[in-house]
Amino acid sequence: MTIGVDDDERAFPQAEDGKALEESWLQICSRLKGEVGEVEYRTWLTKIALGPVDGDEITLLLPTRFLRDWVRSQYGDRLSELWNQVLPAIRRVELQVARPGDPAAPPLALATEDAPVAAPSIEVEEAPRSAPEVRSDLVTTLDTRFTFDTFVVGKPNEFAYACARRVAEKPSSVGFNPLFLYGGVGLGKTHLMHAIGAELVQSGNVSVAYMSAEKFMYRFIAAIRSQSTMEFKEQLRSVDVLMIDDLQFLIGKDNTQEEFFHTFNALVDAGRQIVVSADKSPSDLSGLEDRLRTRLGCGMVADIHATTFELRISILESKAAASGVVVPGKVLEFLAHKITSNVRELEGALNRLIAHANLFGRPVTLEATQDVLHDILKAHDRRVTIEEIQKRVAEHWNIRLTDMSSARRARAVARPRQVAMYLAKQLTSRSLPEIGRKFGNRDHTTVMHAVSRVAELMERDPAFAEDVELMRRMLES
Ligand code: ADP
Ligand code: MG
Fold first, then answer.
1. Binding of ATP: at which residues (predicted)?
2. Average pLDDT over all residues of the chain
3. Fewer CB within 10 Å of terminal CB in the chain, N or C?
């Protein structure tokens, strides 16, 4: 039986432990920032203040319940993990709303007389009194990676790009206000908005506010809670350019929509520029109030289309070049063929390859790519059909699709046809007679011959083998 207090069970009674807490928190903050990105970090996580420690549990304080719930649901687990990694004595994190009556500085229980511990560089919103900071905050939330220079232009986005440039050069021009950018996820809407913002801020003299519709709602609600809606409105209405990202978020949020509508009108009437993005065109955003949809459609509506193979290649080339890692053309082609969903995923895949190459100091090859991206590629895999194989092979060797089943026997036609048969055998579960039928009712022995002929050629001719391999990887399921 032990008598007295077990050392391990005491929290942090000494001053240096307060320091340790503070330092740990700084470390955690910097890691979180790296993980979630500057914008997220500023929006949510800078609002956290350190609270008291009780045993192995630390309390983190947030100014509002809304924020507390959000941080808990989005970052709760990660915060616990990080605390535990950085300071193993902490095993649990409790998130609480700071009471308005609390002293302005968060009650960091461990502060001692001689070493008062202030909340480390974490700003605490003195909830009810301070009005939300709009402008300064909004300018700094711009992501510096998203500029016009780093935006790769191609057919699917050239119109949106041109409109964005135009607004950045001459905000509030007739016909371009509001600018409404729309398109699917990961196609560059946010990138273009930040680029407009960056350009305008650089040109000076213009105040720019950028926020997601979600953040707009959060701020609006926070303002209502703290009875500072007037300040909120005034601050918003004093900017020269207001950009709201992902407007579809406001669907079903009637009060916030209403507020946005009034802000919108006030700004446009005062000759200020509005830029809005959404996943659909104004007319397709059912669930938004009609009068808002009508106004949104009154300026310039620019659509960003799904990427094309060419654009994907250009984007990959540009990002690979910027990374300084040599990525062979074949690998870029392979990625552009495989990951067609959106630029974000394409970029994610390339970044992973590059990180891998840097980490292990190995060159990027097709094999390594398949290996490193195994999970991503699998998610994008589909069952390949004989028709698809024929189409891809015909495209690659520049022959007509009909020649896959024609009787022509010229080598320029017969060889690709044999490759297609070979791939059909490799990649589908079709029998030789079935494959034969799809190639203009050829006999199964013809297919068999094609398969062994291609295998033989691949052994003899490495360039040919590589071609066929590339084709296979692209089609593979
Ligand atoms: P959205 O807002 O439409 O969902 P984002 O603007 O967040 O998409 O783009 C997702 C990612 O893809 C970002 O990292 C962005 O920089 C990148 N990206 C999208 N389009 C392009 C492009 N045309 N050129 C370069 N990068 C792009
Ligand atoms: Mg976006």
1. 186, 188-190
2. 83
3. N
